[in-house]
UniProtKB/TrEMBL annotation:
Residues 474-489, 940-965 have a biased composition (Low complexity). Residues 450-489, 914-967 are annotated as: Disordered. One of its GO terms (biological process) is cytosolic ribosome assembly. Keywords: GTP-binding, Hydrolase, Nucleotide-binding, Ribosome biogenesis. This is Elongation factor-like 1. It holds the Pfam family GTP_EFTU. One of its GO terms (molecular function) is ribosome binding. PROSITE patterns: G_TR_2. The keyword Transcription does not apply. Residues 17-374 form the Tr-type G domain. It comes from Astyanax mexicanus. GO terms for cellular component: cytosol; ribonucleoprotein complex. It comes from the Eukaryota. Residues 450-459 have a biased composition (Basic and acidic residues).
Amino acid sequence: MGHTSLEKLIRLQKKTSNIRNICILAHVDHGKTTLADCLVASNGIISTRLAGKMRYLDSREDEQIRGITMKSSAISLHFTSGESEYLINLIDSPGHVDFSSEVSTAVRLCDGAIVVVDAVEGVCPQTQAVLRQAWLENIRPVLVINKIDRLIVELKLSPQEAYTHLQKILEQVNAVTGALFTSKVLEERAVKEAELEGAVPEGEVPELSGGEQVYDWSAGLEETDDSHLYFSPDQGNVVFASAFDSWGFSIHQFAQIYCQKMGIRSEVLQKTLWGDFYINPKAKKIMKGAQSKGKKPLFVQLVLDNIWSLYDAVVTRRDKEKVEKIVASLGLKVMARDLRHSDPKVLLSAICSQWLPLSQAVLSMVCERLPSPSEMSAERVEKLMSVGTRRFDSLPEKTQQLKQAFLDCVSEDSAPVIVFVSKMFAVDSKALPQNKQRPLTQEELAQRRELARQRHAERQATSQIAEDPDSASAGGAQTATPTNNTNTDADALCAQTEALSVKPAEEEEEKKEHFIAFARVYSGVVRRGQRVFVLGPKYDPALTLRTLPEGCSADDTVPSVPHLACCTLEHLYMLMGRELEELEEVPAGNVLGIAGMEDFILKSATVSTSPACPPFTPLNFEATPIVRVAIEPKHPSEMPKLVRGMRLLNQADPCAEVLIQETGEHVLVTAGEVHLQRCLDDLRERFAKIEISASKPIIPFRETIIRPPKVDMVNEDLGRQQKVAVIHQAKEEQSKYHEGPQVDSGGLVNLTTPNKMATIGVRAVPLPEEATRLLEGSAELIRTMEQFSLFAREGKTLEISQKTLEQIQEFRTRLEGHLQGWKWRNAVERIWAFGPRRCGPNILLNGVEGYQRPSVWQCLEGEKEKPEAATLRDFDNSIVNGFQLATLSGPMCEEPLMGVCFSVESWEMKLAPQFTQQDSVEEETTSRQGSENSDNETRAAVSGESESGGSNEAEASSSSAGGQSRWRGDVTDCYGPFSGQLIAAMKEACRHAFQAKPQRLMAAMYTCEIMATAEVLGRVYGVLSKREGRVLNEEMKEGTDMFIIRAVLPVAESFGFADEMRKRTSGLASPQLVFSHWEVISSDPFWVPTTEEEYLHFGEKADSANQALKYMNAVRKRKGLYVEEKIVEHAEKQRTLGKNK
Ligand SMILES: Nc1nc2c(ncn2[C@@H]2O[C@H](COP(=O)(O)OP(=O)(O)OP(=O)(O)O)[C@@H](O)[C@H]2O)c(=O)[nH]1
Ligand SMILES: [Mg+2]
């Protein structure tokens, strides 16, 4: 087939109903790029011989070398099915977990997905992840079961066994879909119930019109039709394939073939080719119950048997005669060259690609089963348009009207342009079509030839002139000198102008990387040179609609609005894999590339001509970036280049994060080792183009406290012994610092600010593990609650969707469930704040007697701010900030805290009267302050104020009306602003309270799933245990000789793990590491032997390796903190034993 012309594709872009935007998703190495190759070859872009071997869409060098895809890339293909012609915008995505963010960027732009599953490996972790992603984005999947050839050649299954095996794989995939579907239905039902409850007054049962009372106990699953969701060959959404051998088929194709041969209606065959059916030749009927009667199912008899015998003839037995017979019976033509080829796979591909062309099977399934852009569901549109916790119906009316534009997906000029950019990718300026060398036309060639001739003539002329003065100088030096002078002047001038003209060229050289936005048009037509609005993720259309004039467009000069910018679409491209094709306009429903937006978009954005357009919901990223390294240039003078390079890298990668730490280090955060390697390569070769050195990965830790252990290190009961020690220790500490915090035996720390005006008492308590985990998983909800409180403080309200409110309610109930016992009485009610960063897994509790403040659960209760003690309330924020600082970096090695609850048990303020009463503070008051303090101490301890209740309230507020402003800004004394002191004191108190408890480090853990054959199992375990991995379970994959091992592994030990595993097992096992959770390291970093048994067991120095101490010291060293280490352990004089005799 010839190369499809660009004009044809452009023509097809306008026919929205014949466009399919699809992506290929799968676990790593299941054959996505190989499949894409076959589809690309069907358009003549690469040769069919190379299809499956070339991996055309893996255009980066490292992708080819490593054999894995690292980015998503798109290509537009043409497909003819019967009468209709289709445009397929295909996006290939990576399967490696490190690049799962690239999958998110691809899925967002598509309407459908081809999910590929390896017939041998079956459903793997990433298969589940991509199915979930497709589900979350509401895009419809179809299934390709790939690598069927491995069942024949590697596993040597019989057709019947293969059939059973394939059935199992289908079941596995459908089980994943089923689980997603069930959870959605249950969720919807819960929402519906909540709405019903809201509509009917409490206590009443909803009644039917007939007056009967009903109670519906079904879960809603029965009435919801889910049959279209599942993969089943008879539904036409499954293709069986071997992408490597370029064949694939759906049941439909075989039904067509056999309906003529056997005279059975193709609809009947379509329904019976897959399933428990067999042919009864005598009765000339297709019957059910093949299994129970021991008959061959139709699928085995008519489909698999044929393929097996083909492989047998071509690959296994190389039976020429039989091959020729098969070729003749199938009516195919095979070239003699292929027939004679020494590699049987060549012949196999030649036969199969004609008999069962893969592209035909896959693309016709795509066109029939996947929706076109104009069939987008209303549900998906609403999801795209309502950011985070906002409800769709709380959006401004004009914004809601845009929903219709999404649904219509028309390319008329009247329709608003809506485009979503899901990522920015860098291309070399040479690759841009406008910079590419075109083949020259005849006329241009002639012109150039003429130019060259002229230049040659000129050069000859000047060389002659240069020779002449030389000959003249012999006669008259006088005349020669001026000519020479002018000549050199002219040369210098020339050199200067050249230098001037070279400079911009160099700059041009610098700006070699151009950013192209990877985007899709959802409505309207985008044109080259058009002006559009770029909407950042935090853009609020409601705000803009109020400020911008009616009918305002991006062409006008627009007043500045937060998160809104105007830009021009400089170039539009059709994405063609490794190439870009320039376009003038792109109609709705197409995927495209846009140039000229790098200054406006960092990673993703919404682009529209209407300011009413809301920003799209952010992409769902599955992986959390966790591996950090500090980067510096080899030559310090190249720092600016590195900074620029890192900025570019940050823009070009959807998931990498670039930050500058307080220490001044430039830090790169990536999703994993492979991702890190790619980022470093990019930085070296494309973005910074300098030599860089990267530090060892910076491993994150968390600090926490635990309950005092009951046994010592040798498992002896500690009993009272320990307690005595603690009290003793506390007393010692107190005597050490007279000024410092007072610590009592229960761990309560009392600390006074340096100006002696406030004293706080804080106690640290470990949170139960489940509660910590819950907090960690609910960060998003906590952030919403925090936002709500912030809005409430400013007197505004934030509309939160019913669903989110329910989630918050559930979060609260679950938290209450986890915090049981007398210690936690009313704890959930009393939560003051979460931290660090206001949404972390630590809690600040309000244990101050009588101090009332707005609850963090405000959004649930809808309560108004309660009247409270004004002075304390004013400084409420300082306490919270102190807590935030304390939880952000702990005392062990300045890492964030986790699972710690700080309870503020007392908070007393001694305020000098002049601060509360007078507006102006004279100089002398400050000087007299000391003496006055003792006389007129105003105790603003809360207990007093709240007891006096309402009557005092008016007075308090009136007195503080003037004084308050003084308190906030001007309260200064020799120790600096008071609120600052309070923050510092709170932070210190928290740190001391933390240290009063047994401290532990927490390590980040990966889960890894390793597939390995029985022979290498032992080595897999070896590598795992060497790196402190813990095996969770091991099971055998049915029908294969593969074992699946699930294990957890500390991130700290994971570097080089995948490589070592591959090497030790000769490439037979390769693990996928995904960040899973934080785990407490059981050993105490500060441990020294205390009990008699411990001395006996470990010796006085306890010099056995303490893993936690090692980790802690490594972190401290890196951060430049003091490390208590002895360089010389035993300072004995060295002596030579031999001489001592
Ligand atoms: N035997 C066999 N091997 C296949 C088949 N399809 C792909 N492969 C091989 O599987 C390996 C991985 O193929 P890719 O196409 O790179 O897999 P991928 O899914 O794109 O991998 P990532 O993009 O890295 O996730 C290659 O070595 C292919 O040759 C197949 O049908 N049969
Ligand atoms: Mg790939």
